[in-house]
From TrEMBL:
Residues 6-168 form the NAD-dependent epimerase/dehydratase domain. This is Uronate dehydrogenase. The lineage of its organism: Bacteria, Pseudomonadati, Pseudomonadota, Alphaproteobacteria, Hyphomicrobiales. GO terms for molecular function: oxidoreductase activity. The keyword NAD applies. The keyword NAD applies. Belongs to the NAD(P)-dependent epimerase/dehydratase family.
Length: 265
């Protein structure tokens, strides 16, 4: 059991979803975001600040024995804000982790690091990166930072390329990319329990019949997702239009992120 698990981006969608479910992993949570937000109880300790602020980051990591790094820009944006939160921010995280004695990190990467692969491909941890925008590029940068800190400094990180983590799949693409909250929780449990983690790339997706991602390279870690987006197919078919088969968003794994024009000024 961890003493103090840090959750960055704790006020965001995933932070809110996982925080009430981490009692099995950590005695207390240090929860952080840019602005004030409501705590779930005395076991949560609030620290407000910006990932870009190095002094804040050094204080944030102090005394933590695990980190779930969710903080940052989570959708496509122009390069400048992404540079701040996701590039400079992740550098600050790793520098602060080094000073804090290298707590194990779960880095919330994204399927948009590989979003330009065709939906006809099945990818694994060794597939080439193909980011589908500045956001995806920043996640590739974060993955590279994790890998470098592991090889040079021994800092362990689970690089989790999250698909679509929502209570239910919202569209037909998510029949392939859906990551149920239960499966995310079981992955977090594994990451902080397994004796030796290293720096694996793990696709954060449920056991979807139509999944595109193969986690066999990290099978030995013992994580097995249980949910399957297929159970929502009938509901999706009945409630939303089927996507056009020749749309760029349908043809590429990154969906609408791959189809969107680049956000340059
Ligand atoms: P979110 O946007 O709801 O939460 C991110 C949080 O980070 C926000 O509360 C925001 O205030 C905070 N943040 C942004 N810039 C910051 C800064 N400079 N300093 C401190 N905090 C900052 O995103 P969500 O959906 O909760 O995702 C969490 C993480 O998981 C993100 O890193 C995202 O890229 C990643 N992810 C999420 C997926 C999903 O399905 N929800 C899919 C793939 C990746
Ligand atoms: C992401 O990386 C985003 O953070 C999330 O909001 C979803 O859009 C997800 O990918 C997705 O691809 O469904």
């Amino acid at each position: 059991m961890l003493e103090k698990l840090l959750i960055t981006g704790a006020a965001g969608a995933l932070g809110k979803m996982i925080r009430p479910r981490l009692q099995k992993i950590a005695k207390s949570l240090r929860v952080s975001d840019l602005h004030e937000f409501a705590l779930n109880g005395d076991h949560e300790e609030l620290m407000i600040g910006d990932l870009v602020d190095t002094e804040f980051m050094n204080r944030l990591l102090q005394d933590c024995d695990g980190v779930v790094h969710l903080g940052g820009i989570s959708i496509e944006q122009p390069f400048e804000p992404i540079l701040q939160a996701n590039v400079i921010g992740i550098h600050n995280l790793y520098q602060a982790a080094k000073k804090a004695g290298q707590p194990r990190i779960l880095f919330a990467s994204s399927n948009h690091a590989i979003g330009y692969h065709s939906v006809s491909e099945r990818l694994d941890a060794l597939s080439p990166i193909m980011p589908d925008g500045f956001y995806g590029v920043s996640k590739v940068f974060g993955e590279a930072m994790a890998s470098m800190y592991f090889n040079k400094e021994g800092q362990e990180t689970a690089i989790v390329r999250i698909g679509s983590c929502f209570p239910e799949p919202k569209d037909h693409r998510m029949l392939s990319t859906w990551f149920s909250p239960d499966d995310f929780i079981s992955l977090i449990e594994m990451v902080f329990k397994v004796e030796t983690l290293g720096c694996p790339i793990i696709y954060g997706a449920s056991n979807n019949d139509e999944g595109w991602w193969d986690n066999s390279k990290t099978e030995s870690l013992g994580w097995r997702p249980k949910d399957n987006a297929e159970e929502f197919r009938a509901k999706l078919d009945a409630t939303i239009p089927k996507p056009a088969p020749d749309d760029i968003a349908t043809l590429n794994q990154g969906g609408s992120f791959a189809a969107a024009p680049l956000m340059t000024k």
